[in-house]
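Q: What residues go here?
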């Protein structure tokens, strides 16, 4: 059960954030409305929400997930792979320290984005991407194993982040798309397979009794509901324009 979440309001500079998409520039007013709806959904899930103010020097800092990896026992401050985002960790560090005494750090030349880290019970999967390199993944693997977790490093082929294409819903059930549908590392789990035209819906978040999913992907929603999961749909159009998904917008612990 999650009790606490941390989110960060998009600032005016949000529209200049990094992206690999060709979906156009975000509309700030709409992004703010969507972010408020996201906060409301988290509250519906029964968690306390800490809302941090925007920071104009960091256009992508609303995607707080990339700054840390959190477990019930300890936190890991990441080292984001995009140079323009690296300073975000210094703003997040005191917030993490207010909740955790046991804190580790990913150190250069290692880079690591939280969006590349998927926890399934006591097993973590660490994605190698353009933002997370082998050195960063190996540092985190050592930390996790020191703390008695298991860790597997996964090389990404196409997805931007690991959690772009896979999410964990609990009960050993995963949502998978693209390269992860037949990936041998995930064959032991029950799979909800996302069709290619709904690939964006693979990034969703289980928060206590609900699964929050992006709106507009009816096949994936139906599969989740048929599997027994209660869903909350949210419009994510403006965050999608900056490669962002539902998991990116919060730290949950």
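A:
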């Amino acid at each position: 059960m999650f009790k606490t979440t941390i989110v960060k309001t998009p600032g005016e500079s949000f529209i200049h954030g990094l992206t690999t998409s060709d979906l156009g520039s975000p509309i700030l007013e709409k992004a703010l409305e969507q972010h408020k709806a996201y906060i409301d959904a988290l509250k519906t899930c029964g968690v306390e929400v800490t809302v941090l103010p925007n920071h104009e020097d960091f256009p992508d800092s609303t995607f707080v997930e990339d700054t840390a990896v959190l477990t019930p026992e300890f936190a890991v401050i990441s080292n984001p792979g995009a140079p323009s985002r690296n300073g975000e960790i210094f703003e997040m560090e005191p917030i993490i320290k207010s909740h955790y005494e046991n804190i580790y750090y990913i150190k250069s030349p290692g880079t690591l984005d939280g969006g590349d880290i998927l926890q399934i019970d006591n097993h973590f999967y660490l994605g190698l991407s353009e933002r997370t390199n082998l050195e960063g993944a190996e540092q985190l693997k050592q930390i996790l194993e020191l703390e008695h977790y298991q860790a597997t490093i996964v090389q990404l082929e196409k997805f931007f982040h690991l959690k772009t294409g896979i999410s964990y819903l609990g009960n050993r059930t995963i949502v998978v798309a693209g390269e992860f549908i037949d990936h041998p590392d995930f064959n032991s789990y029950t799979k909800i397979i996302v069709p290619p035209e709904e690939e964006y819906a693979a990034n969703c978040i289980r928060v206590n009794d609900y699964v929050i999913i992006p709106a507009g992907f009816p096949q994936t929603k139906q599969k989740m509901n048929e599997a027994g999961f209660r869903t909350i749909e949210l419009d994510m159009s403006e965050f999608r324009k900056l490669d962002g998904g539902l998991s990116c917008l919060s730290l949950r612990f």
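A: Context that may help when evaluating the design: The two ends are 8 Å apart (CA to CA). The chain has a mean pLDDT of 97.
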